[in-house]
Design goal:
It is found in: Cell inner membrane. It is a single chain. This protein is mainly α and 361 residues long. It folds into two domains: 209 residues, MFS general substrate transporter like domains (Growth Hormone, Chain: A); 116 residues, Growth Hormone, Chain: A (Up-down Bundle), CATH 1.20.1250. The chain contains 16 helices and no strands. Helix 4 runs parallel beside helix 7, helix 13 packs antiparallel against helix 14 and helix 13 packs across helix 16. The longest helix is centred in the middle third of the chain and has 37 residues. It is globular and about 65 Å long.
Length: 361
């Protein structure tokens, strides 16, 4: 029995090594991985400090918590609507990249948009500020918050069609976020608008990847989809609506609504300001938060490769429940500990929680 068990484990390790080697020879894997890497670089460089930028009186806009909450609420509503629209459109496009190229173009313009449109309107106050919040919610959601699900869905679709592991490709997104998060705090202390401009540069790189890098197998598949005599592979509108009749879908929606949604509010809106307040100066807090965030996302990137193995062992349902448990521990322990070291350790729980929610769902 022991010999058989050892042999099976050795075979599993050999299979994992073989899959990793073959992935590097797969042009679609390389293209998808680099594309999602650039997306998370473009997003992470400013998103990791977006809450600090809104509320920091020294380096940011100095908004109140109520004003910050209003922006996050409107952004979330816009993200929800645009996300559904993106899903319906991309289902009809199949593997075509028209929509992701459009989103990449928005990401490439985030720097000038924030400096010359968004920030001036937010600081103007009154009706101008509210209009700025609405415009910002559309632009930022279209380019990033809703765009995230679009890029992940397209990468997952490519993984099934062109033979590579989605988790391995998605891990490059976390790796990209980790790299830029390491620099984000230091750039923020110099000038927070630099974060948005670096996001534009990364967005331009992403635009080039999706506009010009088309592997041979993808070209062949695009020709097949363009053939008017080919059997339809994309779902019809009626088929998409019929999915809403599935009880398990609504169970998953309710589960995500009451777990990951509230957790995101805690992690993005509340935690950065709380963490920075634990240090003698906000500058030290910002730099430390950026470094910690980078380390956490590096771990998250590694966990993207581990979680698929866990899913195979315990199943999708139990993986989601495990993710919820880690989430509750993260929030609860932040209320128990009040020193930077302990809170930093608890923050690292995020690197386990994200893959446990992202991959099974």
């Amino acid at each position: 029995m022991l010999r058989g068990s050892g042999t099976n484990k050795k075979k599993q390790r050999n299979n994992m090594t073989s899959n990793t080697r073959s992935a590097w020879k797969n042009p679609s894997y390389l293209q998808s991985s680099f594309g999602i890497f650039m997306f998370f670089c473009s997003w992470g460089i400013w998103w990791s400090f977006f809450s600090r930028w809104l509320t920091d009186p020294t380096h940011g806009l100095g908004m109140t918590s109520a004003e910050q909450g209003q922006i996050y609420s409107i952004n979330s509503l816009a993200t929800l609507v645009i996300m559904f629209a993106y899903g319906a459109i991309q289902d009809q496009l199949g593997i075509k990249r028209k929509l992701v190229i459009f989103v990449s173009a928005i990401a490439a313009l985030v720097g000038p948009f924030v400096q010359f449109v968004y920030a001036p309107m937010l600081t103007a106050g009154g009706t101008t500020r509210f209009i700025g919040v609405l415009i910002g919610s559309i632009v930022l959601s279209s380019g990033f918050m809703a765009g995230c699900s679009l890029f992940e869905a397209l990468t997952e679709r490519y993984s099934r069609k062109f033979g590579f592991e989605y988790g391995q490709s998605r891990a490059w997104g976390s790796f990209g976020y980790a790299i830029v998060a390491l620099c984000a705090g230091f750039l923020f202390n110099i000038n927070p608008l630099l974060n948005f401009w670096v996001g534009s540069i990364c967005g331009l790189g992403m635009l080039c990847v999706y506009a010009f890098w088309v592997p041979a197998k993808q070209k062949e598949e695009l020709k097949k989809e363009a053939d008017p005599n080919a059997a339809p592979t994309n779902p019809s509108f009626k088929e998409m609506i019929s999915v809403l009749k599935m009880p398990t879908l609504w169970v998953l929606i309710v589960f995500m609504l009451f777990t990951n949604t509230f957790y995101t509010v805690f992690d993005q809106q509340m935690f950065p300001n709380y963490y920075a307040s634990l240090f003698p100066t906000t500058e030290i807090g910002n730099a430390t938060y950026g470094t910690l965030n980078s380390f956490q996302v590096f771990l998250e990137s590694a966990m993207m490769g581990v979680v698929p193995i866990i899913m195979k062992k315990i199943g999708v349902r139990n993986s989601l429940l495990l993710g919820a448990t880690v989430m509750f521990l993260r929030i609860g322990l932040c209320g128990v500990f009040h020193d930077p070291v302990s809170v930093s350790i608890v923050k690292l729980f995020h690197s386990i929680e994200v893959p446990l929610f992202c991959l099974p769902a």
